[in-house]
Design a protein that fits this description.
Layout (H helix, E strand, L loop, with lengths): L1 H9 L4 E5 L12 E5 L2 H14 L7 H8 L8 H13 L5 H7 L3 H10 L10 H13 L2 H10 L13 H9 L3 H12 L11 H13 L9 H10 L11 H12 L1 H11 L8 H10 L4 H15 L4 H16 L3
Antiparallel strand pairs: 1-2
Helix pairs in contact: 2-4, 4-5, 4-6, 7-8, 8-10, 12-13, 12-14, 13-14, 14-15, 15-17, 16-17
């Protein structure tokens, strides 16, 4: 290993000697400077040195170095900050994390790097920061949502999971829905023969999830379906997701009733006609009928035309089913 390293150095594959730049950024002597050919390897070594020599009781030197590489100032700093972030997420460097997580450099590289950190090294702070990004409803929020769409059960993803996305969506309006959901599922492909993103999602669920579906463990995916109902919808409120939901509801009616009931609590409205249509199709128990009828009657006056039509459908069905 050492002989190989010396060979690479000797052949100037890892290091090369260049004239000193005519500025005050270089830390080398004015005569010449050694540059790493592999920038990431250089950044890794610098980050490792900084972390290993970090003194939590006297962080001024570290802070001074990072400050010289604020965004746009020195290109080398971008890779160093990223590797510093990864080092900070290791248990052996928890004291460094306590300091570095409060610095602007940490925020600069937090996303998307957080999604490449081992699950056992994540914490509550990560969930807090990711939720804050989602709530901004900007371009980064769209990208974050794309990561979360496939992170399912909490037993596998305790902090950054599908529940986090659903909870954030539940408290947002139709504008947040557009950023987090519509932007990720719109037909953005340039080739007509490519399947629409929403249909691709359904196909993956059918092939990868349904064969070993567990109603308790996979409830978040079914709850997500109630959010995705409007995607690729047809004139009669049909869609690939609606049809998939019916298949699951036929086998697990209690789960279907639970997620549909919760879907009525979401603040955005684009999904509501579909939820009311599917509630009208379910055989709900008497207590649930009474509770949901109260919601329906309270919503009817202010509902959109399409939603009002489905609420009336539900009220008629629930009245006819009474003993």
């Amino acid at each position: 290993m050492r002989s190989d390293l010396y060979f690479l150095l000797g052949e100037e594959i890892l290091l090369r000697r260049d004239p000193a730049p005519d500025n005050n950024i270089s830390l080398a002597a004015p005569a010449d400077v050694l540059n790493f050919v592999y920038d990431e390897f250089r950044d890794f070594l610098i980050a490792k040195y900084l972390v290993e020599n970090f003194d939590p009781n006297a962080p001024a030197d570290f802070a001074s170095f990072v400050a010289t590489g604020e965004r746009g100032a020195v290109q080398i700093s971008e890779g160093v900050k990223r590797f510093l972030y990864y080092f900070s997420r290791l248990p052996d460097w928890s004291e460094f994390w306590k300091y570095y997580s409060k610095q602007a450099a940490y925020d600069e590289v937090f996303f998307p790097e957080v999604f490449f950190v081992a699950e056992e090294h994540l914490n509550v702070d990560d969930a807090f920061r990711i939720r804050a990004i989602l709530e901004k409803s900007d371009y980064d929020a769209t990208r974050v949502a794309r990561f979360l769409l496939w992170r399912g059960p909490k037993d596998r993803f305790p902090f950054l999971n599908l529940d986090l996305l659903i909870d954030t969506l539940a408290e947002g309006d139709d504008g947040r829905f557009a950023v987090l959901i519509s932007n990720n599922f719109q037909s953005y492909y340039g080739f007509q023969e490519r399947t629409n993103p929403a249909r691709e999602w359904v196909e993956v669920i059918e092939k990868k999830l349904l064969p070993y579906f567990d109603p308790k463990r996979h409830e978040p995916f079914v709850q997500l379906m109630t959010i995705l109902f409007p995607l690729n919808s047809e004139s009669d409120l049909e869609s690939p997701v609606v049809r998939l939901f019916r298949r699951i509801a036929a086998k697990f009616p209690a789960l279907a009733h639970k997620v549909l009931s919760r879907a009525l609590e979401f603040k955005f409205t684009i999904h509501r006609p579909y939820v009311w249509r599917l509630l009208a199709e379910q055989n709900l128990d008497a207590a649930m009928v009474v509770a949901i009828r109260a919601v329906a009657e309270g919503e009817l006056a202010s509902a959109s035309v399409e939603t009002a039509t489905e609420i009336r459908r539900f009220l008629i069905k629930s009245t006819a089913s009474r003993p």
